[in-house]
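Box 3.1 A note on notation
Throughout this textbook, protein chains are presented in two layers. The first layer is the amino acid sequence; the second is a token string describing backbone geometry. Keep the layers aligned when reading.
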Amino acid sequence: MKPILPLNAAWLLKNYGLRADKRLGQNYLQDSNALEKIVEAAEIQSTDTVLEIGPGLGSLTRYLSVSAQQVITVELDLKLIPVLQAILKPYANIRLIQGDILDLTPKELGLPPEYLVVANIPYNITSAIIRHLLESEPKPRRIVLTVQKEVAERICATPPDMSLLALSVQVYGSPRIMTRIPAEAFFPAPKVDSTVVKIEICPEPVVPSPLLPSFFKLIKAGFSQKRKTLRNSLSAGLGIATTEAESLLDKAEIDSKRRAETLSLKEWDKMSQIHSKIGKQ
């Protein structure tokens, strides 16, 4: 990769009369070493199209541009568009779009099959973005996320410490923690370090597509009341009697006194199959 001059986020923001918006999770990555690690984790080939979500000031976008055939980058904040247009002007293979990724489908963006996703996003929309992209066509083959260290650990969790976020991600692919990015690599520096997570997407979801509505309904209910048994949390979350919840768990051969975080993805899959059949009766 040819050398790319680092951006000075503080100077750029001041020059354009802007401030980082905490509400949008705006912490701009400007450390060259960290940017190179993200690109390395993405394993970009020269024929790849990369979808970048939340380019910010364009630091990572330029690195992606050098490695990929095309970069389609989507920025929500309208105020950042003039900055991005100026910074990205020398790069002919970048298409900048202003909008909310949750309102745009891969097809509308003109993404080809097997595209890659690279994103530095707030944790509270991580699950929504992944589900949005992977329930649409075409699907990416790999997603690389830069998230808070705690969020990365939740994405990669396993029983008995499973999380709602882990299930929402792992039903579509296999996540792996790649590298740590220190807080000081960003401007303004967040309070915690970040972690790069790579998710290799399965050709098909672990839970068959027709069962995904039941799956997401069940896991949301199961994790709705922490420290409660599955019997009680499913009863409250699904709005059913505890006897019905217990019957569902019995049919799935799951102890009703267990808690949601102890169940494996396969067990949730089995319960989804039974729950879906009950719903059709």
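The chain has two domains: 9-201, 209-280. DSSP finds eleven helices and nine strands in the chain.
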